[in-house]
Design goal:
Largest sheet of chain A: 6 strands, antiparallel
Mean pLDDT of chain A: 96
Low-confidence stretches of chain A: none
Number of strands of chain A: 6
Radius of gyration of chain A: 18 Å
Oligomer: homodimer
Number of helices of chain A: 9
Strand content of chain A: 25-35%
Chain lengths: 192, 192
DNA sequence: CGATTCTTTGAAAACAGTCAATCTGTGTGG
DNA sequence: CCACACAGATTGACTGTTTTCAAAGAATCG
């Protein structure tokens, strides 16, 4: 629904009703059932996508069928493949729904038009990119400096609000360890 | 020297001589000797910095004095702490010179002014941020999906142009392994 | 309920880290 | 120009962490 997005926008920037209408006019709503793909590896991704309801994940699959989760996207967050969007190259990632979800799609050209005509919107987009970059820097720092146990704890600390919506094995994938290791970390933690 | 930066800019965007002068007017040159700090943990970082000569690294230090390298910045790349710059919070990282270097500093306010008055410059800045994000996503993917050996090989593949300017133990730190492990990887590789 | 997904277990093996010592090359000051 | 210090790389033995594999147990959903 557009109202979720509208609330999100008005919470962050000032927009006239004309501007809101302009944005609403370029939005396509897409509903996804649990496990349904939004993007599959090899697709070219041409949208910006706002999650208005549900929960998605971005991941790759290696030759053994093992999943590597790059990102979680709950409602009120953006998703998509920036690399494919920017370069027009086929996506190296898959995005699918962990829960029944709804995403608002804005096609690349329309999105750029909105950015060009509404400066506040453009600023918002850049500040999101800025924040995404900082988040990924923090994750890299965790990856190169922390043990499996500390990365798990770090994940719970940072994402306590959504951790209980995510199966353990997906958290494991996100932080780069096996599900069994998480089980053992938890077992040891209980002991203490 | 400004000429390096000018060449970099003109290679990427069109600028009139007035615009170039406007940029030159806000630049401060800072020379750094090998091992000299540009930023230390706890400092507030208020600049955008372009490396016109030399080679810097961004890193944190843990309580045992161990270094974790977040980034390498050779000439023609940008450096600095985006998080501190954006939020005004003290930096969690250090930046120092691996080689004798020269950086061009633009203060935050001046940088924003240039962004606001020269749209092409603003676009360039955003596209750099975009690319930085993609690079960090790729690094995360390597961290969570590859073994030590494969991460090392991946690093050499991606950064063959600068790998020989970086001591082994710094590559080790960047990819999140110990220097001894790199030695052993190399020993095994020679065998084959 | 039955099927599926998710989590837990245990034993073994692989992987990477730690520590201390040695080796190597480089550069600097006397 | 040499001696020395210093940073970096290598080695070996050992330790500890994490993965792998296969199986069984719990939880969830239609």
């Amino acid at each position: 629904m557009f109202s979720v997005f509208q609330k999100y926008l008005l919470d962050k920037i000032q927009l006239s009703s004309q501007e809101l209408e302009q944005i609403e006019a370029v939005i396509k709503v897409k509903k996804l059932r649990k496990k349904q793909f939004l993007v599959q590896e090899g697709d070219v991704w041409r949208y910006n996508a706002f999650v208005s309801r549900g929960f998605l994940k971005t991941f790759s699959i290696d030759s053994n069928g093992k999943e590597y989760i790059m990102n979680f996207s709950p409602e009120n967050y953006w998703t998509g493949d920036r690399e494919s969007l920017a370069s027009g190259s086929p996506s190296r990632f898959n995005i699918d729904a962990i829960e029944d979800s709804e995403v608002l799609l804005i096609e690349k050209e329309n999105f750029e038009m909105v950015c060009n005509t509404i400066p506040q919107f453009n600023n918002l987009v850049n500040s999101i990119l800025q924040k995404s970059f900082v988040v990924s820097q923090n994750r890299i720092h965790a990856n190169i400096s922390l043990s499996a146990e500390d990365r798990y704890q770090d994940f719970l600390d940072r994402y306590s609000a959504i951790a209980n919506r995510i199966p353990q094995h997906m958290i494991a994938s996100y932080i780069g360890i096996t599900p069994e290791t998480i089980t053992r970390i938890r077992r040891n933690a209980v002991k203490k």
